[in-house]
Amino acid sequence: QKEVEQNSGPLSVPEGAIASLNCTYSDRGSQSFFWYRQYSGKSPELIMSIYSNGDKEDGRFTAQLNKASQYVSLLIRDSQPSDSATYLCAVNGGYSTLTFGKGTMLLVSP
Amino acid sequence: NAGVTQTPKFQVLKTGQSMTLQCAQDMNHNSMYWYRQDPGMGLRLIYYSASEGTTDKGEVPNGYNVSRLNKREFSLRLESAAPSQTSVYFCASSEAGIAVENEQFFGPGTRLTVL
Fold first, then answer.
1. CA dist., res. A57 & res. B70, Å (int)
2. Are A70 and A53 in contact (CB under 8 A)?
3. Exposed, middle or buried: residue A81 (CB in 10 Å: 0-12, 13-18, 19+)?
4. What angle do CA B36, A43, B80 make, to 5 degrees?
5. Is the dihedral of CA A45, B103, A32, B75 positive or negative?
6. I need a surface site. Which of A59, A63, B86, B109 has the fewest CB within 10 A?
7. Higher-pLDDT residue of A86, B102
8. Which CB contacts under 8 angstroms, 24+ apart, belong to A45-51?
9. What 3-state class would DSSP assign to B16?
10. Per the CB < 8 Å rule, is A98 touching B102?
11. Which one of B42, B90, B94 has the shortest CB-CB distance to A96?
């Protein structure tokens, strides 16, 4: 069974700091990786996708992928209280499906 | 574009009652999905439809049925609701196909309580 593991948190960081969220996955054949943000009571919102080893930057967000270590991370620079949410890591789990981790709760304090 | 829409937003059922959750997308996506999300369990795939005319079981299909009515619509039916089906249900869609990109976009969710 394909698995995606995340630390449930909460991860607490002060405003302006860098938040680092991590995810490991079990299936070496996985090719696509996604980070979703979910505010309490809301639906998941896609914030980053990454398909190749290395870094991908989009504004304050950087996704990092290391397929050899089966490891994906999300860095949030200059964290804001509005970034407080649960972050879900998702990995392609087969034809057209995704396997989600249980999410890491991030708390950014003013 | 409305994206992915779901109805109803909230529902309370008694054990044994049936209901259908509706989902529609206006992004011309090929694939559609139904998930449930429970505290501590994350998002779990119930059923999916890779393309119009096909449906497949996901991780937790027992107690549910689905219908891909057309390319836009994908419904989830609970024939005889049980308290264990109390959950938040999300519908999602993606362009999918054989490409590795499979960004899924979610609807607002249906909060279902079974008494």
1. 37
2. no
3. exposed
4. 30
5. positive
6. A59
7. A86
8. A45/B106, A46/B103, A46/B104, A46/B105, A47/A74, A48/A74, A49/B101, A49/B103, A51/B100, A51/B101
9. coil
10. yes
11. B94
| Residues of chain A with C-beta less than 8 angstroms from the C-beta of B50 | 95-96
- Selected for mutation to probe chain A from B29, B43, B54 (highest A CB count within 10 Å) is B43
Question: CA A102 to CA A28: how far, in whole Å?
Answer: 20
Which residues are within 8 A (CB) of A94 and not within 5 positions of it... i.e. 6 or more apart? A2
Record the tokens describing residue A109, joined without a space.
Answer: 């304090």
Q: Rounded to an integer, what is the distance from CA B93 to the centroid of its chain? A: 10
The single-letter DSSP state of residue B84 is G
Task: Please report residues of A whose CB lies closer than 8 A to that of B3.
Answer: none
Pair of tokens at residue A107: 């708390």
Backbone angles phi, psi at B95, to 5 degrees: -70, -40
**pLDDT tens digits, one per residue of B42-96:** 899 999 998 888 999 999 999 999 999 899 999 999 999 999 999 999 999 998 7
